[in-house]
Structure formats: C-alpha cells, structure tokens
Amino acid sequence: MKYQRPKGTADILPDEAVAWNYIESTAKKLFDNYRFHEIRTPIFENFEVFSRSAGDTSDIVTKEMYDFHDKGDRHITLRPEGTAGVVRAFVENKLYGPEHIKPVKLYYTGPMFRYERPQSGRLREFHQIGVEAFGSESPNLDVEVISMGMHLLKKLGIHNLKLVINTLGDQATRKAYRSALIAYLEPHFDELSEDSKVRLHKNPLRVLDSKDKDDQKLVADAPSILDYLTPESASHFETVKNLLETLQIDYQVDASMVRGLDYYNHTIFEIMANDKALGKGDVTVCAGGRYNGLVEELGGPETPGIGFGLGVERLLLLMQAQKAPLPTISPLDVYVVGIGDETKSETLKIVETIRNNGFSTDQDYLDRKPKSQFKTADRLNAKIVITLGNDELAQKVVNLKVMATGDEQQVKLEDVYDNFPKLFGKFLKK
Ligand code: ATP
Ligand code: MG
Predict the structure, then answer these.
(1) Percent of the chain at pLDDT above 70?
(2) Where is the Aminoacyl-transfer RNA synthetases class-II family profile domain positioned along the sequence (predicted)?
(3) Are residues 343 and 293 in the same domain?
C-alpha cells in the first residue's frame, strides 16, 4: 500500500520551510513595531465557538468545517479561521480587564482547516497570519490595521496590490439594508440558487457573497448598503477613507463586498494582488474588518474589535510568481574532512567545538573516501574546509582552507579548540 497525504494538504519541505520562516519572522518584526503581540490558541475548539461567531448560514459553518465528536462525545471543530478562537481566549482570560492596556493588540500564525475543493491557493489545511485588536472604535485603528497588512505585503516584495474596502455599517444600517435587500430579491426568488433561497430570509447579505453566476447577475442591480448608512456609520467610513488618503494608500470602494463571515460590521477590506502568472484575475491574500459585536456574542462585555487574516500559501504563490526575493537554506560555515578511522573521535570534537562557537558545521557520516568528502564540502558550499588525517593527528594540527580565496594553512588543534572565532570568524561573517 502506498501512503499519500490527505487531499488538500501539503508537505512543506526544508527548502520551502526557509521561505515560510522568512515570511513569519518578517511579519512578527513588523507586528512588533505596531505593538501587536503573539497569542497561541488551540487548533481545535468547541463547535459552538465557530457556529456562534462565523454565523450558522456562512459557507464556513454550513459546508467547510472539519467537526467530529470526540471519545467524550464533545462536539469539536478543527479551527477554520483564527478570529473566533482569539475572541474566545480574550473573553475566557479576561483580557478586557483593567490591567490590560487598550487596545489589546494580538497576532497569531498557524494552520486552519476547511473542507473545500482543493485547487491552486486553496487547500483543506492552509495557514494564516492574522491580527486582532480589541477595545477601540477609532477609525484610526481600522486604518492602522489595513496599513499594517499593506506594509507587510510590500515588505515581502508583492507589487500590484489593490485595496478594496466597504462598510457594513452598524446594527441600524444592517436592519434597514436587510429589509431593502429582501424587498429587492423576493420577486426574483425562483431565479435564486438553492443556497441563496435558504439565505434570503435568514441572512440576505450572504446572497451578495454568492459564488453562483446567476445570483451574481441579480445582485449586480441590488440596492447599495452605502445608501442605508446611519449618520454615525457614514461618518466612520468617511474618516477611514480620509485617513487612508492621509497615508497615501490607494483604495477602491466595492459596495457589494460583504465578506465570508457573519460577524463583520463597519469597515471591511480585502487586499488583492493581480498576477497573470497565477492564471486568474485578482487574488485576495489578506482580508478582514471590524466585528464590534463578536466579543459579546461569545460571552464577554461589549468590546469593539478589528482584524485581518492573511493566507500564507497564497502569499507564497504570489511571491514566487512576482519573483519576490526569498531566502534559501544558509550556506555551511565549516566542513570537516576526516581521513582514516583514527580521526573519527577528533573530528567529532572539532565539529562540536565549532558549533558551540555558533557556527554551522558538518562532517562525513558515511565513511566516504577523502575525494568524495571534498566533493560533499563543495556541494554544501562550505566556506571553510578543515582536513585531518593521521599525520596531522600525530602533529596535533589540522589543514584549514578558506574556500573563497583558496588560502590554505596549518592550524594547531589547540587553536581550533580555544581560538576559532577570533582566528577564523572573519571568514564566516553572516
Ligand atoms: P475565499 O472567498 O477565497 O474563499 P474567504 O473569504 O473564505 O476567501 P477568509 O476567510 O477571509 O477567506 O480568509 C482570509 C484569507 O485566508 C484569504 O484571503 C486567503 O488568502 C486565505 N484562505 C482562505 N481559505 C483558504 C484556503 N482554503 N486555502 C488557502 N488559503 C485560504
Ligand atoms: Mg472561502
């Protein structure tokens, strides 16, 4: 029998893992500048955490969740997204308390799970980098979060970015718009897709988000939410737009954008990148918005929140397509060639000593002939090659070659052990 990874999952091999680490560490450094701190929450949560927050008419909850009953008959879900778990943790750990400075700014990275039809940039296990900020309604925070997302993508070398924003207003806005949308869609009930028929009365905004072509045609002429904004909502949105202009961040308003999760209100946004190499039009890499009712929904005190999620696989595809710089596995500092069985314990001591000094070092473990060991050193791109044979061992020296210059010298073993960084560190600068 042949074993294969489950459909929609991927192995991240060492060469690619370097790129992942680079993306994550770049994000972490940037988030630190914005004073967002890391939170790690469980990869599975109780089912209700998601059904309650994402909304039980969302695609995620109705179609895409990996949920099961565990041996104790608890209804468990592998997290399909990061926000709900972070909000659950925010409430459970009372991060709303007075000892926590507001806004509480958090970020996370990790795997998410959705039962979707796998295709390029769409997997069943995928990874997100996400941020959440709690405790401020200020439009400044909306713009900071958006700017941080743009900043990260630019820093990683993505160009042709497009920022699309919309507002879902407040509760009164949603209520008025909901009625208007139902009034518009009802006469077309028979033309709607099955999903949209179900959603029409439960959650008509969902219909705007339908992937069905005929639904999309209908929706094109639907009333615009921008005509139903309360004065407060309109003013929040105006300020967000003005602040984006202040920061010279270009944007487009798409009044039909609603986003996949039910919990959003006020500002929502998507950052897309256009790259023909991916064979499609705009690809959304980063998406988010405000969710002012969510903390309450999960049992906490009324607390506004805003955040985004960024898909790492899609980001990496874009980086590759746009030829953004990506690091590779770092070259080897020192390769130690041992000739003859008698040298084995000494070469082991040498590699361990050099490693203890903070340099990367390797040696032969396969009893290769000297010529083959030198070849290996070459293939590993070693900066320094140290050679130790029986003669050297007897004289307590090694032969040391700096590969960049070809310079060779005899070095006392004692110096390798006691003075390596001082004598040779200059050849190994990172
Ligand atoms: P889509 O409309 O493409 O299904 P979504 O609205 O479901 O996206 P979000 O829930 O907003 O996506 O997730 C934020 C980001 O996470 C997306 O912009 C994308 O980059 C990434 N993402 C979402 N689902 C997947 C997936 N199945 N595989 C890979 N990346 C994903
Ligand atoms: Mg989706």
Answers:
(1) 98
(2) 8-327
(3) no
Q: Does any ligand 1 atom lie closer than 6 A to the CB of residue 287? A: yes
> Do 215 and 196 form a contact (C-beta atoms < 8 A)?
yes
Residue with tokens 């008959």: 73
On whether both 303 and 405 belong to a single domain, the answer is no
DSSP letter, residue 57: T
* CB contact set of 91 (below 8 Å; sequence gap of 6+): 295, 298, 299, 300
Measure 99 CA to ligand 2 centroid, in angstroms. Answer: 37
| pLDDT at residue 210, as a whole number | 86
Tell me the C-alpha distance between 42 and 149, whole Å: 24
Residue 314 in domain: yes
Asked if residue 273 and residue 161 are part of one domain, the reply reads: yes
Q: Name the H helices within 209-327.
A: 213-220, 231-246, 294-297, 312-321
First to last CA, the chain: 46
Look at the chain and report how many structural domains it folds into: 2
Please give the share of the chain, as a percent, with pLDDT higher than 90. Answer: 83
Distance CA 227, CA 169 (A): 11
Question: Do 142 and 236 share a domain, yes or no?
Answer: yes
Ligand 1 close to Cβ of residue 307 (< 6 A): no
Domain that holds residue 141: 14-170+230-321
Whether 207 and 195 have beta carbons less than 8 Å apart is answered as: no
CATH number at residue 364: 3.40.50.800
Mark whether 240 and 387 lie in a shared domain: no
Does residue 206 form part of some domain? no
Q: How confident is the model over 255-297, as pLDDT tens digits?
A: 989 876 667 889 999 999 987 766 668 889 999 999 988 999 9
Which residues lie across from 167 on neighbouring strands?
Answer: 267
Question: Comparing C-alpha atoms, which of 45, 151, 126, 130 is closest to residue 305?
Answer: 130
For residue 350, give Cα distances in angstroms to 346, 347, 353, 359.
6, 5, 5, 12
* pLDDT tops 90 at residue 55: no
pLDDT tens digits along 85-142 = 999 999 999 999 999 999 999 999 999 999 999 998 899 999 999 999 999 999 999 9
Last residue of a domain, one of 272, 295, 321: 321
State if pTM tops 0.90. yes
- List helix spans (H) across 55-189: 59, 83-92, 139-155, 171-185
**Binding site for L-histidine: what residues are annotated?**
81-83, 114, 128, 132, 259, 263-264
**59 or 279, greater pLDDT:** 59
What pLDDT score does 332 carry? 96
